[in-house]
């Protein structure tokens, strides 16, 4: 008998919200929202529910993913559901920019996925279930369901009203499960921020009526001091050993008062136990205990998440790389200069969505990302971005490296240095501020010996920008990270590190990302 063991959360760090999960044999697959980025709907594989490796993107062709030029930050693709039925994988999601749900299928979850079938049904957060007769049901926010033909998208019946939670704001993220003799309906409510909650009901019939569980919401961190907040938008999965698990989104806010979160909504995992036929979960922590023998208990420690790309591939970019709305074929190349990623400017500024950029999510609070870039006659750099109006950039052009901050209507150069022509190494480091550890409450703060009375504003992190010179690294600027947070920028995404070019062409030899000790 293996002892119980701890595992680390979030299991998919960085902006990976609205997780949906399914199991096929010993393999688990998970998808998340992707909003204004292309390709869309990252898909991950795991054998233990703790270590997830991205194996592709479900929507990786423009014909599957319409993101028109006016697609703004946090629009586009919301809340996918992944299911496996009769030897096929199904993924259904909403493109809020076009106002349509789309359904695609695949036999290999790594792709290729089919061209989409569109569903003429209102609301968001579609989910799929097959009933005992083999009929397919689409459940959406509200909460209501429709019997559909998944091959054509035709609605055959509905809307059938379901159950709308306990009265919280936005009943959404519904999922229906056949467990024993019951149909369980999982619903999130309370909005996606700190009021977020997960509730449950059940019925003998897929059409209801649904009887609410005895304790609802059965998971919420609202109005608590917990580090992990906004817990909701969940999906259940039964592991190979029979144990039950729930994936869900949460945020980790830093700094006080108020706390700021910069990594967006991340994917967490919690064990589920059943009491009198109802699911029960403990609060979501960064370190959790997995029952003995369960896949998370058997997992090796979680991968620390370092990443390096030397751009030695010749055919495709790794699936983790995302671009804004689209990635036109003539905007990038891995073969023009072998071993380098060449980018050609499509737009002149990162302040609009047409810029040429390939980006990766920031996944740790404390981390360092660097590039070795040859700007040639162009203008190129590395940005830390949450949206078009909130980004810090370090870029090089005409022998001058500059650090530029764009926050709302303001744009300013914060540091610069002349460098010799040719390739240059630029880095961005984020360092969590510990002016107040997140566990210190306001009361502790004012009563601690020597503490100043009242509330001190604290940055959530410090972002520093460095250029490597012959005399060693030179820090050009250190900026307050709060301005690149959801609390300032709003929206549903988190930060990304982006390689970009806004004039001419430039080539990147490598990108290196590593978490620092305190991440
Ligand atoms: C998603 C909704 C939500 O559709 O946020 O947190 C929306 N929950 O369910 C966008 O991610």
């Amino acid at each position: 008998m293996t002892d119980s063991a701890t595992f680390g959360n979030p299991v998919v760090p960085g902006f990976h919200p609205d997780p949906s999960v399914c199991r096929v044999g010993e393999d688990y697959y998970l998808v998340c929202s992707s909003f204004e980025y292309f390709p869309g709907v990252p898909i991950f594989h795991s054998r233990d529910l703790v270590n997830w490796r991205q194996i592709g993107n479900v929507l990786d062709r423009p014909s599957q993913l319409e993101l028109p030029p006016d697609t703004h930050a946090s629009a586009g693709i919301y809340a996918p559901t992944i299911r496996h039925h009769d030897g096929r994988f199904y993924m259904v999601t909403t493109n809020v920019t076009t106002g349509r749900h789309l359904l695609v299928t695949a036999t290999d979850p790594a792709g290729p996925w089919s061209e989409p079938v569109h569903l003429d049904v209102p609301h968001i957060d579609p989910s799929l279930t097959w009933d005992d007769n083999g009929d397919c049901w689409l459940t959406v926010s509200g909460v209501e369901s429709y019997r559909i033909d998944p091959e054509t998208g035709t609605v055959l019946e509905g809307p059938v009203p379901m159950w709308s939670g306990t009265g919280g704001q936005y009943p959404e993220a519904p999922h229906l499960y056949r467990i024993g003799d019951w149909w369980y309906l999982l619903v999130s409510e309370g909005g996606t921020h700190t009021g977020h909650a997960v509730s449950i009901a059940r019925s003998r019939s897929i059409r209801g009526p649904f009887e609410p569980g005895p304790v609802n919401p059965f998971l919420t961190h609202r109005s608590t001091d917990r580090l992990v907040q906004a817990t909701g938008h969940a999906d259940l999965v039964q592991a190979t050993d029979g144990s039950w698990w729930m994936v869900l989104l949460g945020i980790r806010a830093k700094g006080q008062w108020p706390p700021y979160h910069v990594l967006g909504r991340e994917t967490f995992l919690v064990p589920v136990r059943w009491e009198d036929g109802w699911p029960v979960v403990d609060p979501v922590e960064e370190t959790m205990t997995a029952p003995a023998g369960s896949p998370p208990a058997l997992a090796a420690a979680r991968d620390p998440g370092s990443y390096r790309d030397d751009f030695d591939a010749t055919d495709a970019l790794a699936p983790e790389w995302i671009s804004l709305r689209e990635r036109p074929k003539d905007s990038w190349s891995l073969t023009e200069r072998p071993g380098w990623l060449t980018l050609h400017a499509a737009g002149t500024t990162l302040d609009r969505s047409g810029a040429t950029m390939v980006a990766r999510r920031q996944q740790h609070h404390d981390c360092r990302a660097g590039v070795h870039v040859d700007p040639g006659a162009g203008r190129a750099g590395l940005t830390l971005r949450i949206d078009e109006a909130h980004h810090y950039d370090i870029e090089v052009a005409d022998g001058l490296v500059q650090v530029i901050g764009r926050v709302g209507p303001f744009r300013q150069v914060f540091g610069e240095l002349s460098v010799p022509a040719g390739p240059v190494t630029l880095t961005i480091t984020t360092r969590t501020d510990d002016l107040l550890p997140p566990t210190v409450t306001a009361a502790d703060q004012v009563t601690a010996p020597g503490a100043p009375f009242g509330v001190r504003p604290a940055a959530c992190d410090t972002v520093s920008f460095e250029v490597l010179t012959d005399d060693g690294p030179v820090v050009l600027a250190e900026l307050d990270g709060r301005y690149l947070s959801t609390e300032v920028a709003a929206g549903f995404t988190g930060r990304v590190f982006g390689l970009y070019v806004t004039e001419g062409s430039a080539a990147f030899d490598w990108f290196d990302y590593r978490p620092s000790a305190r991440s």
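Residues 347 and 355 are 4 Å apart (CA to CA). Confidence is low (pLDDT under 50) at residues 435-455.
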